[in-house]
Design goal:
This protein is mostly helical. 53% of the residues lie in helices and 0% in strands. The relative contact order is 0.19.
């Protein structure tokens, strides 16, 4: 289950997007680079992790579910 804090971060960044349903955030150009940087910064701070540049890929950011899977990987290491 996706953490509610992640949904708060995403909604704060772009309240006009349905993050519970959207699966092409990067591939369809829904999020721009500024949005992505803002989201990554908030994720890092909120979950006390540091997302590595090598993990900033569409397959990790195309949906909230994919973001949460990546976050869980960081939290479990």
């Amino acid at each position: 289950m996706i953490n509610s804090r992640l949904y708060e971060i995403l909604s704060d960044a772009r309240s006009d997007i349905d993050f519970e349903r959207e699966t092409g955030l990067i591939d369809q150009g829904i999020l721009n680079s500024f949005d992505l940087l803002s989201i990554i910064s908030e994720i890092n701070e909120s979950f006390e992790i540091t997302i590595k540049p090598m993990d900033i890929l569409p397959q990790n950011f195309n949906s909230a579910e994919l973001m949460w899977k990546m976050i869980e990987t960081y939290l479990n290491t």
